[in-house]
Amino acid sequence: MPLLEPAVDLDARLAPYATERAAAAWSEWWESLLNRHPEFRGVPPLVTDPDPALDADLRALIGNGLPAADAWFTADKHRNLERRRSSPQPSALGLAGGLGRIVRDVEAELGRPAEPFDLVISILPVSGLWGGRVRRDHVLISRALSDYRAGYEALLEPVVRELAQG
C-alpha cells in the first residue's frame, strides 16, 4: 500500500513496538473486526480500548499511536473537505457519474438490467494512482485515482461487470 498523503513523520516512540508479531496480529485483528462488524464497511470506529487478548506490541502501538493518528485523521478530513469545496467538480460526484456510466454500459452489453448489487468504494489518503479490490464488493482507491476517470473506470469496470451478472 502506498504511503499516506500528506506524509506522516516517523514517531520513534512507536518503533520498539513495530514488530513482526504486531504486524501479524494487526492483520488478523483487522480482518476479524471487519468480519464481525459488516457495518464498518466504510471507516471503522477508532479503537480507544484495544482488546486485552491482542498481542502486547499491537496494544502498545494502538495505545501510544492513537492520539496522533486521530489528530492526523481529523486534520486530513478537514483538508479534504476544503479541497472538495474549492474544486469545480468534487471527485465523489465525478466518481458516481463514472460508476453510473459503467453500469449502463454493462447493462447494454448484457441486454438486461444489472442484478442488484452493493459496491463500497473507499477513497484513501494515499499517494499516487493506486487502487485494489479487497473484497468482492469493496474497492480501495487513492484520492488521485478518484480524480482520474480513465483510471478508476479501468479498475471498476470488471468489478461492476462481475457484480451486475449476479
What is the N-to-C succession of helices and strands? HHHEEEHH
The fraction of residues in strands falls at 5-15%
Q: What's the main sheet like?
A: 3 strands, mixed
Flag low-confidence runs.
none
* Tally of DSSP β-strands: 3
What's the shape? globular
Structural class: mainly alpha
Q: Give the distance, in angstroms, between the N- and C-terminal Cα atoms.
A: 30 Å
Kindly state the percentage of residues in helix: 40-55%
Average pLDDT for all residues: 86
Give the strand line-up of the largest sheet.
1-3-2
Radius of gyration: 19 Å
Q: How many helices does DSSP assign?
A: 5
Can you describe what's shown?
The protein has 166 residues and is mainly α. The chain is built from five helices and three strands. Strand 2 and strand 3 form a beta hairpin. Helix 1 (20-36) packs across helix 2 (56-86) and helix 3 (91-110) packs across helix 5 (149-164).
Topology:
Layout: H1 20-36, H2 56-86, H3 91-110, E1 120-124, E2 131-135, E3 138-142, H4 143-146, H5 149-164
Parallel strand pairs: 1-3
Antiparallel strand pairs: 2-3
Question: How would you sum up this structure in a few lines?
Answer:
The chain is mainly alpha-helical and 166 residues long. The chain is built from five helices and three strands, in the order H-H-H-E-E-E-H-H.
